[in-house]
Amino acid sequence: SKKAESKVPDKLIVGTNAEFPPFEYMNDKKQPEGFDIAMIKEIGKRMGKKVEIKNMEFKSLIGAMESDSINAIIAGMTKTEKREKAVDFSDSYYTTNQAIILKKDSKITKLAQLDGKKIGVQEGTTGDLISSGDKFGDGKKAKVLVKGAKVKRFKKGVDAVMDLKNGSVDAVVIDELTANEFVKKNAKKLKIVIDSAGSEYYCIALTKGNTAYKEEVNKQIKAIKEDGTYDKLKAKYIDS
Ligand code: ARG
């Protein structure tokens, strides 16, 4: 594969999938908004660069970066060893877990109990990988958490939740904060169970091999955390 230039690009061309509240969603004006969007705009501003957001399917993001149609991804994307073969990851800006969304009366309390069950997931996410019996976790800690489930893949997590409501799937496996957002809207019918598959570290994916770019982005993440801007954005989008 070609070797990337180590140079900060003139413009941040950022891929996202705005189906993942509170990190990214479409606002009333049909524009991507959320914690991630605010973070990347702040990073771009501090770098003195324009930021262009391109909304696409989650499973298309890494390919779009490999073909150079974007040079950054911010999408609540968990750093994984497999993805790291195709992209570089910034320092982590958020740590979370997977959640299982269930009907209120479900007896399931653990990922291991999803054996033989129908699970709805957003295609290409870590929830998909875990449900599909992929090894989850890094290095020696990687293990299979869900065996023998029937996985139904959706372009949008919210559609998996619809299928759970109408009984077409038994569970949805998705990141905790997004699960909270979806369940809030269906509080009478649904509940959340956390069976920690291990921490997931959200990072910004950047063009592989572009060290200067990664260092600059990391510098800005650090500054945003240190001067209180991070907490302000978290209060606005996540803790509200
Ligand atoms: N953290 C999970 C992953 O990296 C899910 C991210 C989904 N993000 C989105 N914008 N739809 O696979």
From TrEMBL:
CDD domains: PBP2_Arg_Lys_His (cd13624). Residues 11-240 form the Solute-binding protein family 3/N-terminal domain. InterPro entries: Solute-binding_3/MltF_N. The keyword Protease does not apply. Pfam families: SBP_bac_3 (PF00497). It comes from the Bacteria. Keywords: Signal. This is Basic amino acid ABC transporter substrate-binding protein. It comes from Anaerostipes amylophilus.
